[in-house]
Amino acid sequence: MTPRGSDGAGGGRADVVVLSSGHDVADARLHKITGALCRQGLRVDVCGLGDAGAGPAGTRVRTRARGGLASRAWRALTLPWRANASVMFTLDPDLVPMATLAARVRRRRLVVDVHEDYLRLLSDRSWARGAAGAVASGVVRLSNRLAAKADLTVVADGHIPPREARRRLVVENMPDLGLLPSPGTRDATPRAIYIGDLRASRGLFDMLDAVAAAPGWRLDLIGPVAATDVDALHERLQRDDLAGRVDLPGRLPPAEAWKRAEGAWAGLVFLRETPAFREAIPTKLYEYLATGLPFLTTRLPRQVEMVELTGAGVVVDDPADAAEVLRRWADDTAVLDDYRKRAIAWADSHLETSPYDTLATAVADLAR
């Protein structure tokens, strides 16, 4: 375990411990949640994966190596019993069964964050087949039932289960404006950006193909690459049409990742239509709007709705369609300026308050 102390967390027992068996401590939602908890004056511990130095400021962070499925199962079984806080806050479904038991035995309060429809998400994971998939589905179903009985059940969207709970709070994945740069001037060279997990179903190769067919454009892809797509990505980047045009810095803490948005011309959201994504609205859309970035998005229902509501983006049907828009924007920046103005105007009128502060108030009530 790699620790990182923090004056903000203090010594001794914390008010809240945020537990994750699968999330890197650089995860954006984790940073947003803990930032709001700290603003409430709570002492916060974070237990997760990755580099402790990339964890949220003002907290006491402890991390472990990721390992395989067996390592993750062990973390799910043991982390809740090691938590030393008045409130346990879980981020992963496999933690919920043992966290529920630990909370009852140790008389702790339990908050369960359900930020994905995990049953649908399993359909997008290559490992979730056969026996492993059956076990994972069983854990998710059990976790959903137990989550409904927690002291507070947090869901990232209204359609995400459990639909009914003892106390249910919808906390959408809205931006934390403190982690984002203010809208600024564009770079001289056209550059598109994507921040988040990188895999084929999230449009990784579609983004590459679109930029390859838009001469003069560069592309920043910021985030971890799915292991199943690493070889194909490296092969794709070696082709002449993308040589030297794509930057892949890997996973970065949210504020550092979004600093890369300064000077960018456009944001990309090329999710494919899978059961997990059909009803979802990516946080990136809101973050692009908040940073004044026009965006291109695929034809999924709620993303199309955002284009219609904001007037700040364009729906594309395939990489060739996207490339055509990028070429047009490079040739006529006045059109890009219009999209930018609409993005800023919508963000100014819709992103003034943070749902994370509402969540933090509810958690503070449990901790005191």
TrEMBL record:
<dbReference type="Pfam" id="PF00534">
    <property type="entry name" value="Glycos_transf_1"/>
</dbReference>
<dbReference type="GO" id="GO:0016757">
    <property type="term" value="F:glycosyltransferase activity"/>
</dbReference>
<keyword id="KW-0808">Transferase</keyword>
<dbReference type="InterPro" id="IPR001296">
    <property type="entry name" value="Glyco_trans_1"/>
</dbReference>
<feature type="domain" description="Glycosyl transferase family 1">
    <location>
        <begin position="187"/>
        <end position="344"/>
    </location>
</feature>
<protein>
    <submittedName>
        <fullName>Glycosyltransferase</fullName>
    </submittedName>
</protein>
